[in-house]
Amino acid sequence: MHYTGTIWRPPYESNSLLLEVTAGCTHHKCKFCTLYEDLPFLFKMSPMETIQQDLEEVKQQLQLWHNSTITRTFLTGANPFVLKASKLIKIAKLIKQHIATNKTIGCFARITDIALKTDEELLQLRLVGYDGITIGIETGYDEALTFMNKGYVSKDIVTQCKRLEKANISYHFFYLAGIAGEGKGEKNAKATAQICNQLSPKTIIANMLTIYNNSELYAEIQKGIWKEQTEIEKYNELKTLVENIDIDVYFAALGASNAIPIQSVLPKEKQKVLTLLEQIIKNVSEKELKEYRKNLKHL
Ligand code: SF4
Description:
The protein is an alpha/beta fold. The chain has helices spanning 48-64, 85-98, 111-115, 119-127, 142-147, 154-166, 185-196, 216-222, 231-244, 270-283, 286-294; strands at 17-20, 22-24, 43-45, 72-76, 104-109, 133-138, 171-177, 203-208, 249-253, 262-266. The strands form 2 sheets. The chain has an 8-stranded mixed β-sheet. Strands 2-3 form a two-stranded antiparallel ribbon. Residues 25, 27-30, 33, 35, 78, 110, 136 line the site of iron/sulfur cluster. Residues 25, 27-30, 33, 35, 78, 110, 136 line the site of iron/sulfur cluster (SF4).
């Protein structure tokens, strides 16, 4: 199989076939992001021949392991959904040709990638299996989205996700606690809850901002332009987020950036998760949490 650099995938894609169709990110401008810094280029699409070779290899392996079945494929790279609909459809057909049991295809997508597709193209993508795509919205707070160069604002999130809903393509959100900076965690959480409440994400995965020295954000901090939240403010931010979310959604904070794993089904388990967050805020020290983050060599 061809894999380039570090491969990132959401936790719920752990049973999916990971198929490289792109590497890197077309945007590559978010100030906090160092995820694809190990690549010698910004973005690359795999040639169709390489994708086909990988699928041939998977097919052969499946023939050897009679009891194995693949029902879902996750396309790797920061935003494979940026590819033209015709290309994505071609990839979906190739997957089906080689793995007849595959039912759905997921990938990371940027809000701007959805905007590039027509409604008709989104419907076609759903028909060939694209579903459960993961969008790192990070926040619904415009000030933070703009400062961090995410390349869209909150109204774009609502517009584009409603288009996905219309095409029956489900989606998951990644949220980034701490992205708004010192003293703004509450505003960040409330603005994001307000966006989420207008939509139907299947999942909200919370991550916590970890700043690495090679990020643009680190340079901004050195210049005194931006200040980081305390770890406790990040937990207060998560608490405000959970308090203000009114939709049915699976909420989790499980990745390496979270010192303490949290997962819950909202609104059913809202009180349970709020109690856990209150306990963390009351009983875990800033020092311990800072130490955890300092020792995070990579996300
Ligand atoms: S956060 Fe996502 S969109 Fe932004 S630069 Fe990193 S990979 Fe690209």
